Amino acid sequence: GKRVNTYKKIGQVPGIQVGDEFQYKTELRLVGLHFKTMCGIDYVKMGDVNFATSIVASEGYDYDDKFDADVVTYTGEGGNVICKGKKSEDQKMVKGNLALANSMRHKSEVRVIRGQERLDKKGKRYVYDGLYLVDKYWSEKGDSGKSLYRFKLCRIPGQPPLT
Amino acid sequence: GKRVNTYKKIGQVPGIQVGDEFQYKTELRLVGLHFKTMCGIDYVKMGDVNFATSIVASEGYDYDDKFDADVVTYTGEGGNVICKGKKSEDQKMVKGNLALANSMRHKSEVRVIRGQERLDKKGKRYVYDGLYLVDKYWSEKGDSGKSLYRFKLCRIPGQPPLT
DNA sequence: TAGACGTAGA
DNA sequence: TCTACGTCTA
């Protein structure tokens, strides 16, 4: 079985290879890839600053993330509707969004896990795509009229090819 | 590793022993004990009738379930508040509640999984307690003033003792 | 589309 | 207490 990594860290995870697949988000925690059950951006505090450790990006979902060869365009977190009748809000540069911005500034590696819709459309599976660097980010208006963040991540060369 | 059971069935699950522990609710699905990620009552249709396959009962939680030696008193599902401002409602004899009532009438076995709060209070773990029969159920007023169902389940004799 | 005994962290 | 790219069935 896979080795269990309980320590949240930046960069490569021992025993995990590019292309490894997982059936549930909780498995990502068991192996040490991504410790947040429901959040797309995980991060850890180094000194006084939060750095992103990993993101879970999903194809063909509401978030409009894009996978283009070795470039991922990822939508920030926050601003979503919880209760019917409430409006969505502008995303803020806090928590996971701030951690990704910090990772860009310090050129800190970010693990990318790709959530793939299953063919039977029953849930997702998760594939480890390797290490990326945040190249830039910007804010734009979403379909709701509220602003959201986009992060452009570029895959670090020299890793096994994507499957 | 554990054998993977993908077929939802009533009664004993191959390879699973009383006392087996699991860290996440999704693991219960992987081994075939309980297929619903968030619902406490799982069930399967036999002919025209839904029968309960399993319940996940939790100590020291809002639900006021009781574990007393070989008797479990379990609270039905439904009636909960989703949005702030909405009132809770009376529980209805549908879905999981109906399945448990059917299991009682037909003396059909129900697996009981016990959700235990961890000592560090970070989430729960799940222990398989074995097979039970529904002895009776009734409706009562909850703290909210709305009615809820209680199911009394009795452990079938001859199984390994509870840990 | 909504509803259900999920989980961890801020 | 609340949010957050959960996950399945009816």
Automatic annotation (TrEMBL), chains A, B:
Transmembrane segments: none annotated. Residues 11-155 form the YDG domain. It is found in: Chromosome, Centromere; Nucleus. This is YDG domain-containing protein. It comes from Noccaea caerulescens.
